[in-house]
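step 3/5: co-fold with flavin-adenine dinucleotide
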Amino acid sequence: MNAGVVGTLRKLIGEDWVLDNLEQTKGYLYDQTEELIRPRAAEDSIVVKPGNTKEVSEILKYANEVKIPIVPRGGGTGLCGAAIPTKSSIILSDERLNKTIEVDELNLMVTCDAGVTLAALLEKLKEYDNLFFPVHPGDEGAHIGGMVVQNAGGAKAVRHGIMRNHIKGLEVVFPTGEITNLGGKLIKNNSGLDLLHLMIGSEGILGIVTKVILKLYPEPKYSGTLLVSFNNREDAIAVVPQILQRGIIPLAIEYMERDVALESAEHIGAKWPAVDGSVDVIIILSEDKEDTLYEKSEEIVEICDSNNAVYTSIAESAREQNTILAVRSNVYTAVKHNAVDGLDMAVPIGSIPDFMREIFRLADRYGAKTPSVGHAGDGNIHNFIMRENGEIPPYYEELKEEMYKTAVKYGGTITAEHGIGKTRVPNLALQLSHKEIELIKAIKKAFDPNGILNPGTVVNIE
Ligand SMILES: Cc1cc2nc3c(=O)[nH]c(=O)nc-3n(C[C@H](O)[C@H](O)[C@H](O)COP(=O)(O)OP(=O)(O)OC[C@H]3O[C@@H](n4cnc5c(N)ncnc54)[C@H](O)[C@@H]3O)c2cc1C
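step 4/5: write tokens
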């Protein structure tokens, strides 16, 4: 990167907060999809770490004037290459925007700086009697700003939905350096087009999020985690719509094949409690009354038994429940070394059994190993396409495309929660029409006429 640019940025935010040495910057060149997008042409990118919104604004204003790409970066836990620069860029890390976590008990809301980690928010909420924030992607190192622009989901979406359902306000800096507040602590707000919701899921291509207002909830008193095992995938998947059709809305319904459960348990040094069966379903319940928790658990066990369950247990202590959730959350980190890609498709709940059957048939046709886990209660399954003898198999692109087409055929999506980022840009047209893609490009241009923000993400405008 040009020495003049580095010098100007150092004047704007201070000597210590501009990194231009590859040794220091290389950790900022990747997210968790490092295999699929390589930042080779971006190795002379620099990293800036503004300490407040005004500094973010000054950096953007300057970059927009000299037309240098800005790649926003949160915790770097993304799974679609969205935070990876593909050309010489200014990587804007929000890690120093992490000072504010203001809990407003009266309105049941919290205001966070964008660089606050999910772990820090959850830790802060422990200071309060029973306050709860429900969105939990598997890596608590994710920043709240990153979770906003990726519209993160996670395990607990069955009852509480995804980030979009809990974001009330945002402070955003646009590429011109203008600072804007969108939304606020309101229940209703119908003024104009909803720019707040346009920012949610925008993957860093429209503006930089610097502050976030989130909704909080009273935490139900009783929780229990059912672990139910089956001898085959079909029986395991079949219980998901049946539980929901009964009107039982658990916090989470997770599907996990035993091989990956064991690999993940070993990876984190835990013991997986189930022995019989080859596929597990985890159902997390959370209720205000103990009796209700037991009644619902019994109903679920009945449904599972009628679908040939071979093992059932209920974990009630926080320690046992946390172990089960930790094993599920760490599947990705455990299998990553041998996985080419972790897909993120979703279909309407009622179609999951048929969709999964077709997906497994496709994998068999290609002779591919595709161990699977997923937020089955949201219709969202992660199928991993694995390496063969350490290499990306020749069928990878074709199998992936066939799987995406199958999801779309069932009225589904090619990505439920991880995002398009840079890895799925070539596949977007499998789901969206030409008109939709043209509208996305026009919106991007309206926010960012010089195209400086996160080029090559979601859509290509060249
Ligand atoms: C083990 C593991 C499990 C996971 N499980 C889930 C899961 O269950 N559900 C789920 O949804 N996700 C999951 N993820 C993915 C990831 O945690 C989420 O996508 C998360 O929202 C990314 O946040 P981040 O701060 O790490 O963002 P980054 O990866 O740093 O960035 C993601 C995108 O956001 C942009 N960005 C970051 N900060 C800002 C900002 N302040 N302003 C504007 N743009 C910004 C970046 O440019 C990039 O486009 C998992 C990841 C891992 C590693």
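step 5/5: annotate
Residues 31-32, 71-79, 82-83, 94, 114, 137-139, 142-143, 145-147, 149-150, 152-154, 203-204, 208-209, 332-333, 417-418, 454, 457 surround flavin-adenine dinucleotide (CB under 6 Å).
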